[in-house]
Amino acid sequence: MELLRQLSDSGIFSWVILPALIFLARVCDVTIGTVRIIFIARGRKFLAPLLGFFEVSIWLLAISQIMQNVNNLVCFIAYAFGFATGNFIGILIEEKLAMGTLIVRIILAEKDTTLKERLFDAGFGVTVIDGRGKNGAVEMLFSVIKRRDLDKIVGIIEECQANAFYSVEDAKSVSKGIFPEARPGLKSRFLRKGK
User: Fold this and answer.
1) Closest Cα partner for 80 from 19, 165, 132, 163?
2) Are 179 and 123 in contact (CB under 8 A)?
3) Collapsed DSSP state (helix, strand, coil) of residue 107
4) Do residues 139 and 128 make contact, with C-beta atoms less than 8 angstroms apart?
5) Are 115 and 160 in contact (CB under 8 A)?
6) What does pLDDT average to in each consecutive run of 10 residues of the chain (195 residues)?
7) Contact 70, 85 (CB under 8 A)
8) Packing angle between helix 73-97 and helix 47-68, nearest 10 degrees?
9) C-beta separation of 26 from 82 below 8 A
10) What pLDDT was estimated at residue 190?
11) So what's the pLDDT on residue 193?
12) Where exactly are the structural domains of the chain?
C-alpha cells in the first residue's frame, strides 16, 4: 500500500504505469474485437457473443480510466496506440487461425493437365470449365479449399503455371466437397465446421 502511495506521489503511476495499463487493455479489447468480427463473418454464432462480452468489459475499464484522467495526454496516446496495435495483433491471430473456406479460380490461356493432376493428387477438388476470354479460348479451374491450404494450392499453381491468372475469395458457407485430409490437432477439433 505504501509503495502505491509513493508511486502515485512521484507521478510514476500517472505518467507510466496507468498509460501502460490502458495500452495493454486497449490491445486486448481491440484484438478480441477484431477476432470477434471475423468470427461473425464466418458464422461462429456462439463464440462471437462470448468474445463480445470480454471485449466490452475490457473497453469499459480502459475508457473509465481515460475519463478519470482527462488531463493526462500520455493516457490518450496510450489509448490510441493500443487501438492500432490491437488491430494488428487481431489480424495476425486471424491469419494463424486460418478459419473458413475460400474459392480459388484459376484461368489458363491453354489447357494444362499437369496442374489439374497435381491439384487432384494433393487432395483438392477441382471443377474445370471451358471458357472464352479476350484473346481466345481459356480453361477455368475452380476449387473450394480450407483457408489453411491456401499457401499449398498457390504453391502448386505457381510451380505448374507461373503465368496463370488466379483469384481467391471467401466462401460464406460450403456444403459437401472434396478437401485434403484434415491435420489432427486441437485447432481442427475446436474449430471444426464447413463455414
Assistant:
1) 19
2) yes
3) strand
4) yes
5) yes
6) 60 86 95 90 85 95 88 92 95 82 90 90 92 89 91 94 89 72 51 42
7) no
8) 170
9) yes
10) 39
11) 43
12) 2-97, 101-181
Specify the DSSP class assigned to residue 141: E
Alpha-carbon distance of 134 to 35, in angstroms, equals 41
Read off the amino acid at residue 45. Answer: K
The strands making up 101-108's β-sheet, listed across from edge to edge, are: 127-133, 136-146, 101-108, 165-171
The residue type of 34 is T
146-168 exposure pattern, b = at least 16 Cβ within 10 A, e = fewer? bbbbeebbeebbeebbeebebee
pLDDT for the residue 58:
94
* Range 101-181: architecture per CATH: 2-Layer Sandwich (3.30)
Residue that is written with C-alpha cell 497435381 in the block = 118
pLDDT of residue 3: 59
Q: How far apart are CA 171 and CA 118, in angstroms?
A: 23
